[in-house]
């Protein structure tokens, strides 16, 4: 199986890549810095293929799709992991909309852009999967105040997940949103659970059997309320 992970140079994306390589899969390890992608791939071993990819760049995404079609030569699993702006300093009532817009470029339009660009390769796969790394913060059920840029863009990502799942069901491509839980990364800060625990639920969604769920929202393989 060939997977591509965005934001694979640190945090959860790096751990997901490590686990997939360890399980014998080929992983296109992408980062917005080529050096970071190369360093990570070198650490993970021969089945990791480095690629520069800023998810906000239309050109990068187009080039990445062309590069992956050449080497490793296809794609089975797209893991939209990269995200920014856990904006604990803002409230919806006073949020800087430029910050919200910038977050949307990475957290919502990035995954959308990647799904569109890689769709031809995913359609070609016999077991196409898209995993959108989301957050329980995006659950409308019980949503309250705070982190407006992050929350609204992840809620948009959840909506995109539902639509792509419906539109790609006939192609056999399973599309799910996964919350990794609170994880001790640069974004999560200290006190969260180990990255391996957060990454495991993403690997689960990336390696679902053909009769696995699609259009769902999960943490640790268990459904979360939308
Ligand atoms: N940690 C948590 O507690 C938690 C909880 C719920 C959900 N999540 C979700 O889990 C995912 C991973 O989070 P994390 O905690 O591992 O975050 P992180 O440690 O902050 O890492 C974020 C990664 O995304 C990359 N990135 C940011 N903007 C990018 C862009 N435009 N193009 C390509 N890559 C970009 C970063 O690359 P650079 O190194 O270049 O900045 C980095 O590799 C995110 O979707 C996050 O929302 C995390």
From TrEMBL:
Keyword field contains NADP? yes
Q: Which UniProt keywords apply?
A: NADP, Oxidoreductase
- Matching InterPro entries, A to Z? NAD(P)-bd_dom_sf (IPR036291), Sc_DH/Rdtase_CS (IPR020904), SDR_fam (IPR002347)
- What domain of life does the native source organism fall in? Bacteria
Under Pfam families, the record lists:
adh_short
Which positions carry the signal peptide feature in this UniProt record?
Answer: none
Q: PROSITE patterns in the record, alphabetically?
A: ADH_SHORT
Which family is annotated? Belongs to the short-chain dehydrogenases/reductases (SDR) family.
Q: Can you name this protein? A: SDR family NAD(P)-dependent oxidoreductase
This protein's species is Actinomadura gamaensis
